[in-house]
């Protein structure tokens, strides 16, 4: 006996969205925190050639999508 064709229900995907509200520091707390700054060249030089290539490809994809969206 054949079973009727049943549709499988996939579970809901896990949300990648950051939960809101964000825990934003108050003005007086923000002044006491030190900010670490790193030059772009320093970050780039620590990446492997493979990672640099992946970053270039991702940036190129973003630029192409922005140009494509701008034409519509």
**Main beta sheet:** none
What are the segments in which pLDDT stays under 50 over at least 5 consecutive residues? none
Fraction of residues in β-strands:
under 5%
Question: Which percent range fits the helix content?
Answer: 40-55%
Spatial extent as radius of gyration: 23 Å
Average pLDDT confidence is 77
Envelope shape: extended
How many DSSP helices?
Answer: 3
Number of strands: 0
Structural class: mainly alpha
Describe this structure in words.
The protein has 3 helices and no strands. Helices cover 50% and strands 0% of the residues. The chain is mainly alpha-helical. The protein has helices spanning 27-32, 40-46, 49-71.
In short:
The chain has 72 residues and is an all-alpha fold.
Topology:
Blueprint: H1 27-32, H2 40-46, H3 49-71
Keywords, separated by commas or semicolons:
mainly alpha; extended; single chain; 72 residues
């Amino acid at each position: 006996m054949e079973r009727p064709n049943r549709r499988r229900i996939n579970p809901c995907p896990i949300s990648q969205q950051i939960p809101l509200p964000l825990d934003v520091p108050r003005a007086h707390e923000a002044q006491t925190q030190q900010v670490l700054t790193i030059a772009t060249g320093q970050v780039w030089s620590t990446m492997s050639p493979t990672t640099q290539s992946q970053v270039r490809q991702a940036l190129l994809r973003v630029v192409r999508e922005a140009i494509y969206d701008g034409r519509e």
